[in-house]
Fold these 2 entries.
Entry 1:
Amino acid sequence: MKKLIVVIAVLGMAALPAAMAVGGSLADCGTARLKGYLGERLDAMIANHVAATDVDYITAPFLEKTETKRWWQTEFWGKWMHSAVPYLGYCGSEKLRALIDRGVERMIASQELNGYIGNYPDELRCGEGWDVWGMKYTLMGLLHYYDWKRHEESNNSSRLSSNISRPTSSAALDACRRLCDYVIAEIGPNGRRGRELWQTGNWSGYASSSILEPVMFLYKRTKERKYLDFAAYIVKGMSEPEAGPRLVDLALKGVSVADRNGYGNTPETGGGYVMKHNRWKAYEMMSCYQGLLEYSEELRVKSEELGTGREEVERLRLAAIKTAEDIVKEEINLAGGSASSEAWFHGARKQHLPYVRLQETCVTTTWMRFCEKLLDVTGDPKWADEIEKTFYNAYLAALKADGSEFAGYTPLSGGRYHGQHHCYMHTDCCNANGPRGFLVFLRELFRTADGVATFNFYASALVKETLPSGRAVAFDMYSLYPRDNSARIVSHTTGPLKLRLRIPSWSAKTVVKVNGAAQQNVASGGYFTIDCDWRLGDIVEIAFDMPVVAHVREHHVAFTRGPVLLARDSRFADGDLMEPLRGGIRDGQVQPAFAAVRAPSDDLWMTFAATLPLGSHHANPEGRLPATVFFCDYASAGNTWRRDDFYRTWFPVELGP
Ligand SMILES: [Zn+2]
């Protein structure tokens, strides 16, 4: 037995990517190698979407420079790089590597002498539209490349290729510097265009102000004071002007994200879709808080050195946390999705109604990124709960079965379909953004910090990290979760180590066993720590408490099981999905009528049968009998993207006189 375990350990670990778990690196893809259902979905997405992207097509606008409508063709490459670079570390695809190199070569070639990289004519630059937003993503893309290339150059022996290809990391960083210097010269504190950064672009300055995140990334890599000064200027613009983004004071006052119009700006509720002054755009708002958290972390380091400034750090951090808590309370639905037409609308309380353009994939992935940053900054596992809910529902629902594209919007009831063609191009914001969401799940699945190892998520995966001491820790997890309720973790680690397991808040009674011995004091909504002297082959088993639970809103009911929202799908051909349930189901009530059953086809991940009181004819002896109908996980519902397939998650409950 012992020999067998050692063999498994050696074979299993050999398959892991060796070196990309570089803390703080934008090239970081974590150290989990997914297997099973999720592993297949990720592999398909990388192969059929990320590595199938036509990099010449998405970089052509930078070389052609034909923009006249102030649109956003210049966001697609940077977003793509944001996931392409970490996934290169995950899969090692030579094809992907060549695409990344070629894209950066073309981007650098497109840079003007003044530093500008974009496609706007000079008279339209740094003003209305999405020019600054595009430069934000270009900075992001180049900085991702820089981190990857720097890592490769410092190892000087790429496992992918014996020759390190061009461009170099320093060429990429130089291009970033020059681009950021251009923005500072045009619309920085004394910019020649005579306007403030927050006054450019849309949504009261949200879109342009979100450049803060890559500006902080650039500062952290160059340590040049001018970039930190520029970041401080952006934060000032985010906070102080009465008609600006007001991301700090409105948050600290507890103004809900859907109610932040007014307050000194001009709410244009009846105008064209792209609105100059509204403050309700979900994606752009959350992108600003990403940057604000990066900035506050830098201030925190400095305040610890200087012994002052802690109050400002806490103020900024609290603004981000209070905003995210408000989003959870007011906006996030049972699928972990949010926003209608990309705008906040108190959607959590209206989720049983058919709102227009629900759950834009950009909002879904940005919410996951925001939660990831909060998890890193606060260590609070409630943010991992949110990532998990969004990932298994809204996120996987948007990802086409073959991994090749993302839906633009994903309704809670209806059908799934292709996204949009944006800016005269055969792509859109959501297809560019989508792959970044899986990365959040992948990176946060297993983490080590301060010598403590943590599992945030449960999926079949091999994980391996090297502690600062140089010691390797590794585990092999086998799990069908959340299709079933358990996970089994085999140790490939020797010696003392604290291993933390996230216990989701919805699991009331979780059982954890170490080598068969049940552990005490396993509490939901926190981490359970196993502090032991590990041997190869030690086994940890976890069983979650995940009954089906009813959720009731204004004569509608929906059902969840653990983190998963359940749906009826027309493919089951088991009756009218709008047929009302009879009254009597209470909010929070456990539903023992649901049982896991064999799925009728491979395209459904999980299937349940439920015998429920359906239909209005309960005066009739036959009609009063319950009916057995089928449910699947929300992400599998409608995943054929066929127009004659449809699904439903919120079901009407009949009304009385
Ligand atoms: Zn989008």
Entry 2:
Amino acid sequence: MGLLFLFILLAGCIRVTSDAAPAVPTQLATAVPLPTITLPPAPHTATPIPTVLPPTQPLPTAPPAPTLPPSPATTLPPTPAANGFITQTIGLSVEKRPLISYTFGNGPTQIVFIGGIHGGYEWNTILLAYDAIDYFTENPNMIPISVTLHIIPSANPDGQFVVTGKDGRFSRADVAWDTLPGRVNGNQVDLNRNWGCNWSATAVWRDQPIGAGSKPFSEPENVALRNFIVALQPTAVVFWHSAFNGVFAAGCPDLYQPSYDLAFVYSQAAGYPVYTSFDTYPVTGDAGDWLATQGIPAVSVELTNHESLDWNQNLAGMLAVLNQ
Ligand SMILES: [Zn+2]
């Protein structure tokens, strides 16, 4: 009797749940349209934006974050122009990480600043570039009307990731103790030994051999950077490096005078020594050297160490170049 009762009870339960089951989808189906018609959309859209954007695209979203809250009520406000810059993915790394350019202004004179070609090993140059992006976002009036400014914070995102574990923006706390593995890209190539003037398969860094790639421009990061810069025909390209404390004028095979003029302007404002060449060890396939062969003035600015951004110095250098 007890078993029979239990069986009836269970059968009843099963029937109840199976009867109830079809009712759930219909209730849900009718419930969904209601909140979208009424007011709930505002909190609904507000929450996903901060949670979705930081993990996927920390680079472009980090600076605009403060300006996002006021606008999301309207249509699709994440338009980059509203933040004072336009972002553009100019290419992908070996490991398919984006190289991103931040563009400010729209004058005819093109000026380019590039951080992190030596990846996480020179992580301070990447943070310097992000601080510059913040600065010009907050101070767009500091960009002359005649200028379009392009900042590429991380020209070797694979090398940045090795040291920081982050794509896009990172903080000092993310930087690993050993930064050396982050100098090269995903193919173990030093991206400042892979350009098309004075290229050598047997490149060195200090007294050690280092990867130069299978041929000039074998690396996708450099192809992207080269194509982007050549299309712009800028009047100045500044690569940030660390840490030799100086501004080095590019040229190949000899010094390119417009590069020296640019180096002089930057160094005078920033207070770094200026050099006509880098002689500590042979540098083959240098990026700025190749640009000089294309008639594009380029310099390497070496920060004083691997930690400091030398912010005041480099802000002065940037403003001097923008206003020259
Ligand atoms: Zn470097």
